Amino acid sequence: xxxxxxxxxxxxxxxxxxxxxxxxxxxxxxxxxxxxxxxxxxxxxxxxxxxxxxxxxxxxxxxxxxxxxxxxxxxxxxxxxxxxxxxxxxxxxxxxxxxxxxxxxxxxxxxxxxxxxxxxxxxxxxxxxxxxxxxxxxxxxxxxxxxxxxxxxxxxxxxxxxxxxxxxxxxxxxxxxxxxxxxxxxxxxxxxxxxxxxxxxxxxxxxxxxxxxxxxxxxxxxxxxxxxxxxxxxxxxxxxxxxxxxxxxxxxxxxxxxxxxxxxxxxxxxxxxxxxxxxxxxxxxxxxxxxxxxxxxxxxxxxxxxxxxxxxxxxxxxxxxxxxxxxxxxxxxxxxxxxxxxxxxxxxxxxxxxxxxxxxxxxxxxxxxxxxxxxxxxxxxxxxxxxxxxxxxxxxxxxxxxxxxxxxxxxxxxxxxxxxxxxxxxxxxxxxxxxxxxxxxxxxxxxxxxxxxxxxxxxxxxxxxxxxxxxxxxxxxxxxxxxxxxxxxxxxxxxx
Length: 496
Known about the structure:
Strand 8, helix 9 (220-232) and strand 9 form a beta-alpha-beta unit. Helices cover 44% and strands 16% of the residues. The chain has 496 residues and is of the alpha/beta class. The N and C termini lie far apart (67 Å).
């Protein structure tokens, strides 16, 4: 059995040495560098993206994340020292970064390379064995991953499995030590349910309807460019793409005028022939999106589509009602509804009436309003006067909350996702330390209890408090030298 073989390999300790882990990271960088044409071709076949988008959205992310792991792996994997109290002043308190064991990484189709390989490398960098299941929807990229990974990554510790729903269903019946899944919320619920059988911890990177709030104080020209750029990356097939706009009717007219100008500037008079607009991944996804083009308010911009190319034009819908189908599911395409509200309070009320989004984009110069939104809404992440760029910052955790996911990764958070923080207290057999600690042993007295409680409390913030533990140890050490138990007994009988 594949999982059993990987677990047997893990228990040999092969994945624990830092040099082995670094070798895998370096091998991934080499794999990307030596196979760029083939990887570009696969991504273009699946998503119709231009080479520049592939470089920005796939290869740059992989190279940056892997290089970051290489640079900091020794630091991240080293045991962490924990703060001590009076009771543990002379102990060693450590937190070990233990690999879980055998990890299942399930990639997704919209960024089929980076959303498979970065979690895979994070799991290997943390010292785990890995089963990687790329998305079967991005067939060409999945095939290339399955061909290349075994040539570069240790095949005893990392396996790539291909297949669709039947294969995935069977895979989820197996016992893993950790599961990392990127994809839709409905499938995320299935993953979580399967993990419950073995109480397997999970990271679920899901999605949702990420709102954009725009008020009249915003620079409308810049706002239009930033929102449209975030929406049109990968033809809107991005989990953190702006999903809908909340604004007043006055702001709606201003933003529509600017979006029209930007579309013409970026894509020309006929966006369909522009090389900078990707295509929809499958016919099924295309038909679902085309269904949003009717019966959901009115088309103010765009609306054109071509089934033969799975092309949908940049589209803005107005007069959209909160109950319209386009407002009930994550869009995941180049369609942007506008819902009008009267003020910032109504915007917050609207957002809080729905599932918590993966991202929230606020465009405003009014600090009090921005603070009000930040303090009264919950989302995976936020950008103020920007869109999507939070995903590119390695020092920020990326992850959802509620229906948009659980757990986070990116940068050190990727490494931390795949390790268990194992706590340890390490004591010696020193006689004086044992004398101090003996206040916990029966027979229990009021004095012992007071001393024990004092030792468990943190140090008071007073001048010279850092020396208090040493004074206490000296006093208690003196007691032990004259017979600790007898001294306490006499004290208790005479004065307590």
